[in-house]
Amino acid sequence: MNLSKKINAFIKITRPVNVVITFLVVVVAILISQENNIEFYKIIFPSIVVALVAAAGNIINDINDVETDKISHPERVLVLESLSKKEAIYFYNFLNILAIIIASRLSDILLLIVFGSIIILYFYSYSLKKFPLLGNVTVASLTGLTFIYGGFVTGNPIAAIAPAVFAFLINLVREIVKDIQDIEGDSIIGYKTFPIKYGIQKSKFLILVITVSLILYTVYPFITKLYKIEYFLIVMLIVNPVLILSIKLLYDKEKNRFKIISNLLKVDMIFGLLAIYLGK
Question: Which end of the chain has less Cβ packing within 10 Å, N or C?
């Protein structure tokens, strides 16, 4: 394999779109939490740290999911053998070590959050995701924690709680959708995810309940005057309509609807970030 293809494989295994979104989450969390203007490097370096941890988490997840990915995600790097497991493990360790080194230069609390997140992601990839909702809640909680982390950068984590709840709920929905999408591969290797244990219909109902709760919650930051009219307009014109569309697709017969929903929710997260940033 030539060098450019190898480099592309190293980039692809990190799931760069997700990594960029994670980076932006921290940037937005810092900007909305700051009480005084913060130096540029104090925004960039903490954001890079979390992006590195997220990239490493995606790698260790792929390392442990090779067998199920042969069915659910045959396009993944390790399934195609564009990278070896050994290369992926080395890259995983490198990214985590780099994240810890940078975090250690920032603050003790940020280092603690980063180190704890690395440990949790490791156990998630090896065991937690195999159990009903436990893995889903773990990933969603870590996504919400990303906002809190950004709040700690500015010394004002309270300001990050409202968007952290939004991030938790929308990612919890997306994680359950992904479990439905991966049900065939997960069942073969003995995972006991919520869709496998309780069925697709109950999973759809759970997604419906959480999504409706999320839609109702999006009104809270506006009516309590946490965020301004810009937030409300983007939420009402884009974020919530996409959530409603996701519910509609959930009950359609389209074969690839779960993948479509997952991608829609990822895009919706970006618009949610925009609403939060402009509304603050």
Answer: N
Show the domain range for 164: 3-279
Q: Please tell me the total number of residues recorded for the chain in this structure.
A: 280
The count of structural domains within the chain is: 1
- Quickly list DSSP for 185-253: HHHHTT---HHHHH-HHHHHHHHHHHHHHHHHHTTHHHHTTSS-HHHHHHIIIIIHHHHHHHHHHHTS-
Helix H or strand E segment including 123? helix 108-126
CA distance 200 to 205: 9
Q: Average pLDDT over the chain, rounded to whole? A: 92
Say which residue, 213 or 71, is predicted with more confidence. 213
CATH code assigned at 46: 1.10.357.140
More confident residue, 23 or 182: 23
65, 79 Cβ separation under 8 angstroms:
no
Q: How far is CA 280 from the centre of its chain?
A: 22
Taking the model in full, what pTM does it have? 0.90
